[in-house]
Design a protein that fits this description.
Aminopeptidase, N-FG_amidohydro, N-formylglutamate amidohydrolase, hydrolase activity, 245 residues, seven-stranded mixed β-sheet, two-stranded antiparallel sheet, alpha/beta
Length: 245
C-alpha cells in the first residue's frame, strides 16, 4: 500500500523546464490483480514505452526536471479527468481488463490512492517551482491491434489544445531535425489533454505535448536522439516565445 504514485528526477526550479510523463511506468501494485497476462504489461496498453528513459536522459541537463507517474495506466489513467469512465479502463486496444470490473467504492478508493495524490503533488510542485515550459511526454504504438490497417507513419506527434503557440513552433523545429511530424496526430490534444488542461492551460503555463513512436523510443539510440532533440526544442521554443518567470 506504499507504492508512490510519482517519481521526480532532476531538481525542479522556478523558471526551468518540467517534463511530465503520466504513463511512464508499467508497475502494478502487488495488491491489485488486473487479471491479464503479465506479458501485456510490457506492451503499449500498460504504459508509454520509452518515456521514462527519455525523460531521465533530458533531466540530466541543467534546468530540466521530470515528474513521472509511478504505475501502469491500467491501474488508473492519470491523463483522464478524475471521474471519466476511462480513468479506470475496462479495456485497452480491444483487450478486456477483468480486474477493473470493480464496485463504485473500490473505484473511489483507487482514485483516492493514485489519481488524486499524483495531481495534488503536481499542483504543489508547479506552485512552488513554476516552470517556464512544460514538456508533456507520451509515446504511441506504430499499429493498434484493434486497428491494424490504420497507418501511423509519424515519428513524433505534437498535441495541444487552446495554448498552441509553443507547439506551433515545435512542429517546424522537429521537422528540421529530420522527424516526420504529426500535427495533432496520432491523437488530438483537443480531445485527450486532461493533465495539460488542468495544470498548464488553467495556470497559463506554456507547454508542448509530444508523442514519440514506440519502435523508435524502445531502444537506446532512439531514446538518445529523442532526448537531444526534445531538449534543444524546449530551449528553442522558450527563446522564440521569450518565456521567463
Amino acid at each position: 500500500m506504499t507504492d508512490a504514485p510519482f517519481e521526480i528526477f532532476g531538481k525542479p526550479r522556478k523558471g526551468g523546464f518540467l517534463i511530465i510523463g503520466d504513463h511512464a511506468s508499467n508497475h502494478v501494485p502487488s495488491d491489485i490483480d488486473l487479471r491479464i497476462d503479465r506479458a501485456c504489461l510490457n506492451t503499449h496498453i500498460a504504459w508509454d514505452i520509452g518515456v521514462a528513459s527519455v525523460a531521465r536522459l533530458i533531466a540530466r541537463e541543467d534546468g530540466f526536471s521530470a515528474f513521472l507517474g509511478g504505475y501502469s495506466r491500467l491501474v488508473v489513467d492519470l491523463n483522464r479527468d478524475l471521474y471519466d469512465d476511462s480513468a479506470i479502463p475496462s479495456a485497452s486496444d480491444g483487450l478486456p481488463i477483468p480486474g477493473n470490473a470493480i464496485s463504485e467504492n473500490e473505484k473511489e478508493a483507487r482514485l483516492e490512492r493514485f489519481h488524486k495524490p499524483y495531481h495534488f503533488h503536481l499542483s504543489e510542485l508547479l506552485a512552488q517551482h513554476r516552470p517556464k515550459l512544460i514538456l508533456s511526454l507520451h509515446s504511441f504504438t506504430p499499429a493498434l491491434e484493434s486497428k491494424p490497417d490504420e497507418a501511423r507513419p509519424w515519428q513524433v506527434g505534437v498535441l495541444y489544445n487552446d495554448k498552441e503557440a509553443a507547439s506551433k513552433l515545435a512542429i517546424p523545429f522537429l521537422e528540421s531535425a529530420g522527424y516526420t511530424v504529426g500535427d495533432q496526430l496520432p491523437y488530438s490534444g483537443k480531445l485527450l489533454n486532461a493533465t495539460m488542461n488542468r495544470h498548464a492551460e488553467a495556470n497559463d503555463i506554456a507547454y508542448i505535448g509530444i508523442e514519440m513512436r514506440q519502435d523508435i523510443s524502445c531502444h537506446p539510440d532512439g531514446q538518445a536522439r529523442y532526448a537531444r532533440t526534445l531538449a534543444d526544442m524546449c530551449h528553442f521554443v522558450s527563446e522564440q516565445l521569450g518565456l521567463s518567470i
